[in-house]
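Listing S7. Sequence submitted for prediction.
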Amino acid sequence: MPSAQEQRSTASFLLGVLAPQGLSARVDAFRAASGASRESAAHVTVKARSGLSADLAWLESARATVAQAPAFEVRVGGAGIFPRRAVYLRVDSPGLVEVHVALLHALRPARRFGYEGPHMTPHLTLAQARRHLDLNGTFAQAQAAFADLAVQPFAFTVTALHLFMKPGPGGIYTPVSPLPLAT
């Protein structure tokens, strides 16, 4: 059996907001019914994996940055699509974007994804493009399944981010540790 260090060396990490239980259950049910694979626990990514090395040297800086940020509201709306990439639920949260930008400044990743920065599109991924998945059909299913959120978004207050870890290729991102926001 590989050691914790060996397991971590192939792991990837992200920082995100866990969806509340009721919303998470709806997302899981949708994924199961639509044939979408479960890539992670239902969450909204705040800092993607770029610059989040397996040695976790960045973690204390991330904790300190998050600890200075106030709690913020997230509003989850109806379905959207990134063509040829993913089906998602729309997220409106200026506070989330502010924490994202603060993390980019604090962590200064040598390379970052093009979608990172103040122009990011916060979202909760429902399904990623895979060979077996009809993304446009999945989008239509998502529009129907989450039509209520397009009319009345689901709002909640975030008091902590979570460190997510994916153990390696083929694994799923799971929350491993909370990072509390300022109280």
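Caption to Listing S7: primary sequence and predicted structure tokens for the chain studied. The mean pLDDT is 88. The domain at 4-166 is CATH 3.90.1140.10 (Cyclic Phosphodiesterase; Chain: A,).
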